[in-house]
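Q: Convert this sequence to structure tokens.
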Amino acid sequence: MHLTFSRLPLLLSTLLGLVFLPGSAPATPAVSLAPLSSPTSATPLPATLAWGWPLVGKPLVVHAFDPPAQPWLAGHRGVDLAATQGSAVLAPASGVVTFAGVVVNRSVVTIVVNNGLRLSFEPVTTSLKAGDSVTRGQEIGHVEGPTHCDGSVTLSCLHWGVRRGDQYLNPLQFILDLRPSVLLPLID
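A:
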């Protein structure tokens, strides 16, 4: 099939009209014949659809997500991010604190975001309490050890986990600057 530049906007608007977010109704395809600025440029998704990092900047991932084959087996149900003691921990997304306390000698903060995902951070000391609302980018506490990275390549780390019900998810899939790029076809 040979596409001409004049038909590309119609094709793109029709295709994009079929894309919708989970929980929303499909959009009716909009027909537009306005020329595109460049056949290879794409409008990025809004940052509100993705999360920010829970630390300032783009931290080093010390230990990647490595879920076990069965829920009762050993595995790494989150990611460890290099962080020095006292580093500020930021809310990657807006939500509500559902837990702030100690679990097996580690300070833990858990936030539930609007799609029901539970984000947990440890070891993090905080003044927040269950029921407190947080906004994306808000400081929610500080890394305070010992951490399970002590004695490894880094001196300390922040463990970040994400759960949907009982299923652990890779937190990095929600980070804006780690999502895959979308390439459009090059049209002559």
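The two ends are 13 Å apart (CA to CA).
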